[in-house]
Amino acid sequence: MRSFCLTILSFLICLSVFATHNRAGEITYKHVSGYIYEIIIITYTYTPSEANKSRGFLPIEWGDGISGTIPRISEEFLPDDFTKNTYKTTHSYPGPGTYTIQLIDPNRNEGVVNIVESVNVPFAITTTLRIDAILGGNTTPVLTNPPVDNAAIGVKFIHNPSAYDADGDSLAYRLTTCSGENGSFISGYTMPMTSKDFYVDAVTGDLVWDAPIVLGSYNVAMIVEEWRKGTKIGEIVRDMQIEVFDADNSVPKIEPLSDVCVRVGDTVRFLVTATDADSDSVFLKASGGPFEIAQKASFTIVSSEKGKTVGEFVWVPTCTEIREQAYSVLFKAVDNDKISLADMKSVGIKVIGHPPVQLQASPQSVSVSLSWADSLCAEQVIAYDIYRSRKATTYAPEYCEVGLPDSLTEVYEKIATVAASKKEFYDNNNGIGLTPGFTYCYRLCSVFGGNYSSYISSEICAQLVPASPVLTNVSVEKTDNTKGELFVAWSIPREFDSITFPKPYQYWLYRSTGLYGENLSLVSKIEGLTDTSFIDSNLNTVDSAYSYRIEFYSLATGKPILIGAPPVSSSPYLRYEAYNHKVRLTLEASVGWENDTLFVLRKAPGESSFQIIGTFKDDEFWDMGLENGREYDYYVRTSGYFDYHLLPKRVYNTSQILSAIPADTVPPKAMPLQVEQSCESLSRTISWVVDTEDEIKNILVYFKNCENPEWHVIATVPSSQTSFIHSFADSTGNMAGCYYVAAEDSAGNIGKYEYDTCLYNCPQYTLPNVFTPNGDGENDLFHPVVNKFVQRVDMKLYDAWGQLVFATENPELNWDGTHHKTKKKISDGVFYYVCDVYEYWSDCEIHKREIAGFVHKFSD
């Protein structure tokens, strides 16, 4: 054992001498099949270092409890003493789960300004892989712009990784701290000093340093997150190096560029111009997604002179490039000076698919049959969205529009999504039937992966000629629980084939409670053509709407032969919600005509007749300034129309009379909240925004955790207060837990539970690196400096020869420097420990995290 440890120690010493070379890098992966992934590590190292010769393999942690090595497959020598190293291999994972792939390699290059003694600090990078059967296989984005760059004192610096994600996942970017020993954040690491700002744009990925103020090399780390269907599916930690110079040189400038879109088969073509104020020659290049695919884009220098270079970008995307996420192209201009400086500009290119073509619409009596043909990219289409309108609308989509444009949402609605294998659709309004006397218009969109729509198709319309009677009135004439009455009327049929269906004729009228004719029963048979109305009596018009269906028969053969039957239509049914000094009215109706105005009539307490007080807006009507506890009577008169010359131009129908009593019985709206956790102060700040529409008196803050799993109020604060601090500084309990807030109004109504936020414990377990068991009463025991919210530990402590000298599950440890078996004092020295810390998370399960380190024992 001793010789083994000495060998390992010698190996580590050798590495510390020669492995002083790592400057930048990242880990990416590609999904091969099943649970097999190809892992790629790219590092940028210091070329003169002897370590480069011995780094044919790198150590790697696969994240599944297995470690190994990964071979170098290429080595590329670059200017400014950079070497690009590419390592690649495959690994098979055991199954679904989240895996952190990690490289820790001694050491970083010397002289990094924002890392103390960087030459002695390991280089550590990670990438997270999530294997999920629902989300599918994943391939990380490729970062096409190298993680090494130059900057100048006092000059704004911008770097972009130019990420391309072949899966079309959404990408988000953020800064993080560079990592070192054990993969932990580097102690004493600082972000680069700046005169103004240092940040990463979360959307574009631009790393902005405005501006450097101190010369030297700096390392910064950026996280690139992948999101799919609202779930984070992976992330890359890129560690990059920036060299800051005091350059007597102007940064070249790329003229402004705009994002563009392109329909499949069309050509994207634009010029990129870079200039240099010092008349230096300018090297202009492009990188990004369009250069990583089979049908590659091209970027050609079309002119170059002192101080100016012009390049032309050309791309004709194919069907396989259709996706919701824009393709990012990064243009980089580098001048030819003693210290080369660069400018970058990104262009987003959105690729749009085409809709189906050759739309046909064939009208039947109460339905329309649609058909269409594929356009380009049929193999990529996964579905078709079908939109319908009762109104023809002239519209040509803008070149970059996709889906149903906002300007058409008032007249068109989506009625169906059908599989890509279908090229026809039968529209009978979900079995209810379409109303004769209207023109029905249709537009379609192709749907591609990720539910990404094409632009909208051209319009096709069909008019339904009324070959049967059409209901025109279903109106409440009397409101009563038992003696209610409705007036039902219909049009005389004029467009039917009277030779095929000769007289005599008969109408059959059916009735059902509710809006949609769920339980129709025959209520009357009416002879002839001209009697087109009916008074339906002895009904409960207070508690229900009624719906009717009219059927038209020929009796010429002695048997009734159905000529036609239009869709069901219902009476308007009025409802209300009581609020403090106001009521909200809503109306339900299912009718064959188009209601465009809803008049509200009211009879207030003490009044003898109804008066019009307004019209509905956005499907509701608010009556304000009422007296709580008093009864107000309302009804609604609907005004509608048909779009056919042989049907009435305008039809009117009335709802039942509704008695409404305003009262404050409705609880306030559910309240979103934000929770910010401070592990330094062991507290959380819960904040919210009070809805000014409600008369709020108090805000109630609710909490639950593993010890008390039921929601309980921990604070009641006045409505003027918009935050509450929940402190755990004096608590020995569990910090992991969940919060929600609810408003209480002046009537005592408490808002519903809808939004909550759950947080883990703060990782509050810190061990010292020195203790002195000399019996003086000070620092005699090795125990945590901070111990909060830890349930138990599994501590194992080893001497320099790898022998276990102490073990415990007590979080306080209390090691006095003696051997755990012999109880004899152990000689002073450096001891290595591995400690599994077990803590509650918000799921009320105990989870493990591992810490490791060294402690120095001094007795004198």
Search tags:
860 residues, mainly beta, five-stranded antiparallel β-sheet, 62 strands, disordered N terminus
Short structural summary:
This protein is mostly beta strands and 860 residues long. The chain is built from one helix and 62 strands.
Structural notes for this entry:
By secondary structure, the chain is mainly beta. The protein is 2% helix and 50% strand. It contains one helix and 62 strands. Strands 6, 7, 9, 12, 15 and 16 form a six-stranded mixed β-sheet that branches. A five-stranded antiparallel β-sheet has the order 1-2-5-4-3, with no helix packed on it. It is globular. The two termini are 29 Å apart. The model is unreliable at 1-19 (pLDDT under 50).
Write the layout of secondary structure elements.
Elements: H1 2-18, E1 22-33, E2 36-46, E3 57-61, E4 67-78, E5 82-92, E6 97-105, E7 123-131, E8 142-143, E9 148-152, E10 157-159, E11 163-164, E12 170-176, E13 194-200, E14 207-212, E15 216-228, E16 231-245, E17 253-254, E18 260-263, E19 268-275, E20 282-288, E21 298-305, E22 308-315, E23 327-335, E24 342-352, E25 357-363, E26 368-373, E27 383-389, E28 413-419, E29 424-427, E30 439-448, E31 452-453, E32 460-463, E33 471-478, E34 484-490, E35 505-513, E36 521-527, E37 533-539, E38 546-554, E39 561-564, E40 569-570, E41 573-579, E42 582-588, E43 594-603, E44 611-615, E45 621-624, E46 632-641, E47 651-654, E48 658-660, E49 673-678, E50 683-688, E51 696-705, E52 712-718, E53 723-727, E54 737-745, E55 757-759, E56 764-766, E57 770-771, E58 786-788, E59 790-798, E60 804-808, E61 829-840, E62 846-857
Parallel strand pairs: 9-16, 18-24, 57-62
Antiparallel strand pairs: 1-2, 2-5, 3-4, 4-5, 6-7, 7-16, 8-11, 10-14, 12-15, 13-14, 15-16, 17-19, 19-22, 20-23, 21-22, 23-24, 25-26, 26-29, 27-28, 27-30, 30-31, 30-32, 33-34, 34-37, 35-36, 35-38, 38-39, 38-40, 41-42, 42-45, 43-44, 43-46, 46-47, 46-48, 49-50, 50-53, 51-52, 51-54, 54-55, 56-58, ...
